[in-house]
Write a structure and sequence with these properties.
The structure is a single chain. This protein is an alpha+beta fold and 592 residues long. It folds into 3 domains: 255 residues, 3-Layer(aba) Sandwich (D-Maltodextrin-Binding Protein, domain 2); 142 residues, 3-Layer(aba) Sandwich (D-Maltodextrin-Binding Protein, domain 2), CATH 3.40.190.10; 127 residues, no CATH class. The strands form 3 sheets. Strands 1, 2, 3, 4, 5, 9, 10, 11 and 12 form a 9-stranded mixed sheet that branches. A two-stranded antiparallel sheet has the order 6-13. Helix 23 packs antiparallel against helix 24. The chain starts with 8 loop residues before the first strand and ends with a helix.
Amino acid sequence: MKPTIHAKRWTALGAAAMLGMTGAMGAAQAQMSKEERMDKAREWVNKEFTPGSISKEQMMKEMEFFIEASKPYRGMDVDVLSETIATHVYESETLATAFSEITGINLTHDITGEGEVVSKVQTELQSERTIYDAYINDSDLIGTHYRYGKTVPLSKWIKNGASDVTSPYLDIDDFMGKSFTTAPNGVMYQLPDQQFANLYWFRYDWFQNEELQERFQDEYGYELGVPENWSAYEDIAEFFTEDVDPSDVSNDGGADAIYGHMDYGKKDPSLAWRFHDAWLSMAGAGSKGLPNGKPVDEWGIRVEDCHPVGSTVARGGAVNGPAAVYSMRKYLKWLNEYAPPDASGMTFSEAGPIPANGKVAQQIFWYTAFTASMTAPKKAVATDEGKPRWRMAPSPKGPYWEEGMKLGYQDAGSWTFFKHTVESSPKAAKAAWLYAQFTTSKTVSVKKFKEGLTPVRESTVESDPVGAMSEELGGLVEFYRSPARVQWTPTGTNPPDYPKLASLWWQNIAPIASGNVSPKEGMTKLGNEMDKVMQRLERAGVQERCGPRMNDKRDPSYWLSKEGAPKAKLDNENPQGETVAYDELVKSWQEE
């Protein structure tokens, strides 16, 4: 029996109860014939999942697979957990109900905060006792799952132990993020369920204002447009904050001031996401390589022959190198000089909705998960019809960035199964795997995209229904259809223990954000603490493969004199600003 530890439960049975179904009726549902289940599936296809990326006939073939494969598991109670974002709310409220009605499996899909999900995952890894039958867990933990050997190697399991419950229509190659969940040994450990990137966001209508364009050109010597480097971003931030009055722009938000930047800085676990989610790589601190830098990644961790060897410059890492310190100085300058005064006291969730209020001209680090909230009619940043007055575009590059590096972060919440669950409760694990495939199936993919705007399939973003939405989404569809998207990736395999290391970031960056320590002092302390954790992992020998083998400390000049990361301080960290017209940018994507 699983402990009842869930803070919030969205269940298929609960949804059925709200519709007036009794327990007896639920039992009767478990005894439905195949024909009755096909009729039920057809109802869902016609009312909920059409139009899609595939035809109704193809949808029904997928549904027939789920009906046949679920026979041994009907009447079972299955529990899964994910974080609370719009995509997973849709899954928990709607897809779980559809799955239960079609298959007869009683599916409970719980949702909670991301920190709680990581905590539950960490508890299962340590105790090897089942709390949930499966998780939608960020692919950022791929290095943890790969090294500890406690996570089901999914690509092997579906060919061997779970071949009888693996859909012939799964089409792994259609998943855009399959490289994110694949370890150095070529094994895929997780199945992507949703993706969203951190991109550059800006007020397209303000940037198109001819008077503002002329004033910017006169003051800075180049055109107002999408910034291609951090120098241009800073110039634009300064321009809108100091030189633009609310009366100069369309200001449906009634703002008494305009700001050229938005961010957050409160001491909170979400402050960690702000930085280890690729801020250093945006500046150019790491190495070339996709989906993550090799040998130094966006966390500043150096890996040699698959073994982490250090994060400080003294050990060959880059977390306290010149590029990382530069990136922290820029974060502080922009937060303090160009963002709303209360931004420094906000968390991620508090700061996220602020640009929709109509006071902010641009944001360098903006998650596309907020897209839906930006398109509601009557919003200050949307027309009365809900059309965006803003656009999203690739993030500008820091001065240390080099061609061939990743440019930003992409969250990839992915289905994760643990070995102890598969071994102790194989039927529950297989039933949960059926649900995982249902939530990522081509049948539901377009409707799920409309609800959460977090696509995982190539066929979804290339479909006609999604293409028809492009005008409403401010560049999201164009981004995912473009070749640029490969430069936005999640955390890779370098961090050997994500939960242990991630908690160090916000605790060490908060004093930098508050001004209590300098960027150099704070990042060096962070690096030293990361190295200590990896040293403990090395001594304990708790990881099955590719565990840390820490380098001895050397004078930093030894590493900084070498080619690549960690990189020596540039003579000029503020080159001339460069911009590109947004419409030309999109045109270049389409031509490529």
